[in-house]
Each structure stands twice: as C-alpha cells, then as structure tokens.
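seq/struct pair 1
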Amino acid sequence: MSDTELRAEFTAFDQSTEQDWELIASQLPVTQSMAAANIVEQLRMLERDHGGFPVSRLEHSLQTASRAENDGRDEEYVLCALLHDIGDTLAPYNHPSIAAGIVKPFVSEANHWMVEHHGIFQGYYFWHHLGMDRNTRDRYLDSPYYERTEEFCAKYDQTAFDPDYVSAPLSHYEPLIAACFDPASG
C-alpha cells in the first residue's frame, strides 16, 4: 500500500468514521516503533547545550545513568536516570514534565513520580543561591516516593556534573531504550 492509502480522509474529527479510527489505531505500533530512535536523537541534541554547567546536558544525563547503573540500580531506574532531563532544551522551565510524560506508560509509579518531581527535589542543592526556598520539596513529605526521589537527586543527579567522570557512552544505553520503547526490538 502507498502512504496515501494508509490515511484517513476526514478533515475534522467530527467527520471521522469507525473505519478511520481502526486505521489510525492500527498505525500506533508503527509510530511507537519510531520512539526509541527519536529518544536517542533527542538525547544527542542535548550535546549541543551546556547551559553554563561544567558538562553538556547529554554528559549530565550519561553521568546520572552511569552512576545509577554502577550502583546496581535496575534497568528501569537507569533508564529514568538517563532520560530525566531529556526535556531540558525543549522546555527549560518545565523539563521534568517532558521526561515524565515520555516514561509514564513504561515505568513504575515510583519511577514516574521520581522523574516528574526531580526538579523540585534537585532545587534543594541550589535554590537558596537564587533566593528560592530549597526546602520546597518538603511539601511532598507525605509521598511514598519522597525518599526515593531525595536519594536519586543526592546520589545521582546533583553529583553528575564532573568533567573528569567517565560515563558509559550513549550507544551503551541504546539497547535499553529500544527494549523499553520499541516492542518489536525485543
């Protein structure tokens, strides 16, 4: 079939038919199969920006993942460590939400919450230098994931800005990304 044969013909949802939506639903696995490659490409784009930090945003992500992996964390946790800042160059003021949206269907509630809230928890280490409340994270003290997120930032995220640290390369994590986001790869 040609590309045009695989398209619905409506111009507004209220004109669509059940057959249109069956066609569209059948294409979701095709679109999902592109996700892993798109995630890798977005991570590569982080190499272009350092945002004033001692290392590029990609190197920060690789250091965070490498530190978690070297500490014996499971693959899902390592994946979250790798992707936690993937939204830095897309939504600098709201990057945790970008990463959380990407991982949500594929990770545990605990890891999703950790990714979604890491920005506030990371603030503990520097917000006081900007006149902000470093203890803002404490509004989540009643969360069952508070300690997990606090530990993630303390052990892996806030320490991952070392130009001398030897991280695993992005290629090391590509099979992990593929296994999670491309069901056909496994």
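seq/struct pair 2
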Amino acid sequence: MRHKIKDKKPMDRAAIALVLCFSVVALASVFTVKSSLDKINLSDNNNINVPQSNQPEERSVTKQVPTVDSKDNPQSNTQNENKNSSNSSAWVAPVDGLITLEYSTELPIYSKTLNQYMVHNGIDIAAPLDSRVQAAAAGTVVETYKDDRLGYTVKINHGNGFITTYSNLSDSAVVEAGDVVKKGDIIGGIGDTSLFESSDESHLHFEMQKDDKLVNPSDYIKF
C-alpha cells in the first residue's frame, strides 16, 4: 500500500501542471481577442465621417427696438419706411378728397377769405367736417398747436428731412407731441378753425417740408 501512494503523487503534480498550462493559454487567448476587438473598433471610429455644415449655427436673437424721437434721431427704425421718400408708395393722402387750392409759393393765388392774391404754402384738400385725417407716413408728432392763421395744427417729423403739417383741424385732440404714429394712423378730424381760409369750403390745409424747405406735396403723394 505504501508503494502505491508514493507513485500517485507524481501523477497529481503532472495534472496540476497541465491545468495551469491550459489556464495560461486561455488567458492569453482572451487578451489577444480583446486587443483585436479594440483595434477593430478604433479603426471603425477613425473611418466615421462626421458631416461638417458650412452654415453658421442659427441663433434666436431678439433685437430691441429703440424708442423713437424724430427730433433727435431722424434715421431711427420707425422712419425706415420713408428712406426712399421720393417714392409715392412711401406716402398716403392725409384725407380723401379733391385738391381745391394748389401749392404755389411763387405765383400768388386769389384768396376768397382775404380778398387778395397771396402765395399758398401747401395744398387744400376738400373734405366734410369731422372727416378723419391720417398721418401721411410713419413718424413722430413734434408739435400740436393752434396757429393764428391756419387753426389747429399737427406737425409730424418723418425723418430723412421730411416734415408734414396738417392744419384747419377740429379742436378735439387725438395726438400730442411725442406720439409715434404709423402711416395711416388717425391724428385728428377736419374742422373750421382756419381764420385765413374760413370762406373756403371745408378742407384740410396740408404742407410738406424737405430739409427745412417747403415742397409741393403733390410731388410725393398721389392724390
């Protein structure tokens, strides 16, 4: 019995050594496979083409619109509508009606009320009393006052050197100095407050200036 037990120990050692060898080979195989997979993944990632857009990233930008004061900033955004003010589409007739007295600063025109010939700095547009008068273009109201000759008056600065004046209005105030108006906004109504034109039929007396010089409104506005 003692001889058989001694013969068994070498066989156990050989089996253990064999198991260890298989274990080492298996681990080496696992590391080899893992290394190969990592190289494959890295190669695939390097071959991925990410499209690059040439377009700039879109951003939502809210622009602040400045408060308009045509007296100080005649080129402000509210007046952009009249940048090409020589174009009749930039303007609208202040009231619906026919011109009864034309613009004439060189050749005197007869005045019924004053019974004499005199120059006429604007145009008279016939319209019934209380007809609504609208801003001829976007701008800022710079003055509202009662003129001794032409009655209640509203003056609007449109920027780009243009100022319009609306006279013979009713005494019911609709706008006041500092108000910002858009083209077509109602600024008053036709009245009979003009002393110098009281004998004429009901009308709006309308004047226009460009760069501080009187101009003929009919050159800019289609009536």
